[in-house]
Amino acid sequence: MRAPSFPPVDRTALSSGVAVLLLSAVAGQGAWAQDLRIAHVTLISPELAGAMRDVTVSVHEGRIAAIAPGRAGDGSAAGSDAVAFDAHGLYLAPGLIDSHVHLEAIPGMTAEQERQHPELARAAREQIPRSFLQFGYTTLVDLNSAPQAMAPWRSHALVPDTYFCGGAVLMDGYPMNYLPKPERYRMMPYMLIEPGSAAPDGVDAAAHTPEAVVARMKADGAICVKTFFERGFGSAHDLPVPQLATIRALVHTAHAAGLPVLMHANSSEAQRFALDAGVDIIAHGLWNWDEALPANALTPRVRNVLDRVIETHTGWQPTIQVLFGLRDLTHSAFLGDPMLRRVLPENLITWYTSSEGQWFRDQLASDFRTSDPEKLQKQADRVFGTLITRDERATAYLAAHKARLLFGTDTPSAPTYANPPGLNGFREMHNLKAAGLSPAQIFRMATIVNARALHLDAEVGTVQVGKRANLLLLREDPTRSIEAYADIDRIILGGRLIDPAELYPPAN
C-alpha cells in the first residue's frame, strides 16, 4: 500500500538496465549453485496427493535433477562431487512465495532519515533479504517497482529470487498522491493519463496510455501489472479513481502481452470495480465494507462481492497483516518482542524506540486526535480490531467456498516498523489460521497457487525435476503445522544450502 520512492527514470537507461539485471541474476545463480544429494527425506509438494517417504532429491546447477526412492537415489544425477545431506526425519518442501511485497524502502524509515543514518540503513538493507529467507521465502514479487529500484536489491550477496510488477498508477491518484509535485510525474514511469485529462508540463500523454505503459513494463522485465482503486483514508479521502474503460483497456493489453493484472482494492466498491474490470488478482482482503462500524457480520452486499470472486475464480490476497502493521504501532510492547531480534539489527530496533523512529506512530496518533498512549491504543484496537475481524470473516467465507486465495503480506504496507520482513509472513500465516484456514491450505497458497497465478509455475511452486532448487528442509510437516516455518533446518536457494543461523543479524 505504501507510496513508492523511485528516482527519476530515464527510458534509455531502463532499457539497457534490463539486460544488465538479467545477466547479473544469471551470474549470481551460477556462483551460488552447488550439486546436492538430499537423501532419505520425506517429500511434501502441493501437486502430490500425499507425502513421498524415503526419497533422494538431486540438485545440479541450481535445478532439481532427479527424484528417486531412497536407495535408488544413491546413484544420483548430481555429480560425484555433490554435497551429500542425510535428511532422514526431515521434510523437503518448495520454498515459499510472498506475492505482495515492497522492497524500495526500509520499514519505518523515510528516505531523509536513511540519508541521515547511513550505517544504520546499510545494516538494515543487508539484513532484510536474509530475514525473508529465514522464514522460508525464496521467491518475492514486488508489486510496484521498476528496474532501477530492483537493481540495488538484487545486488546483495544473498537475496531471494525477486520479480516485480509495474505500477499503473492513475495520475494524481493513490499512491502517487503522497509524492510532491512535480517530482511525482518523473518518479512514476508507468503513470496512467486518461483521455480528457491534461498532461503535466513536460509529460507526453501518449506515453501514458494503457497500451504504452504495458509495453514499457514488458520491455522493462515486469511479470505483472499492478493498478489501484483507492479513494483514500485519513486526511486524503477523496482521491481520483480510474474509469472502468481505462482499466478494462489495461487488462486487455496486459493479457495480450502475457501479463496478469492485480488491483489494489480493499473496499466493497473497489472490489466490485476490480471484478467489473476483469482483473486477475485482487491485491487485498475486504476490510472496508462501505458500511458503518462496528458491523462485522457478512452483509448481503459484502457476500455478493465475495460470491463474484468465487464465481470468476479471481485471485484474492487477504493481507490481514496490513491492519496489524498499523494497530501494533500503538502497542508499546511490540518492539520488545524477542522474535524481532531474529530479523532486524539491534541498533535499528533501538532507533525505532527513539522520538525520531516514532514519527509514523505519531502521525497515526494525530489521525486519531490523541497524544495519550493509552487512549491511542484503545482507539486503534477498536477500529483496527473491527477491520481485522471483517477481513478474517471474508477470508473464511472464501476459503470455505474454495476461492483462489493467494499468499501475500504487503510487507511493509506503509512506513511502519510493525511489518518486519520474513516474520511478517509467519504472522500472516497465524492470521489465516485464525480465520479458519488449515496449514495445508496456507501451504498451497504460498506455493503452487501463487506460482500459477503469476505465471511462475514453470520455475517454482513445486518440487519437480527441472525446476529451480528453491527448497526448504523442515523438521515438521508444513501441511500439518505452520510452526514448521519458525524452525527451518536448511534453506536451499538456487542450489545453495543455507543454515538459517547464517541469516540472523550480526551481534552489535
How would you briefly describe this protein structure?
The protein has 508 residues and is of the alpha/beta class.
Report what the structure shows.
The protein has 508 residues and is of the alpha/beta class. Among the domains are: 1-29 and 144-154 and 164-282, no CATH class; 30-94 and 463-503, Urease, subunit C, domain 1, CATH 2.30.40.10. It contains 16 helices and 15 strands. The protein has helices at 11-32, 111-116, 118-134, 147-154, 183-187, 210-220, 244-256, 268-277, 300-312, 321-327, 340-343, 346-352, 359-368, 373-400, 423-434, 439-453, and strands at residues 36-43, 52-60, 63-69, 83-86, 91-94, 96-101, 137-142, 161-168, 224-228, 261-264, 281-282, 315-316, 471-474, 488-493, 496-498. Strands 1, 2, 3, 4, 5, 13, 14 and 15 form an eight-stranded mixed beta sheet that branches. The radius of gyration is 22 Å and the shape is globular. The relative contact order is 0.16.
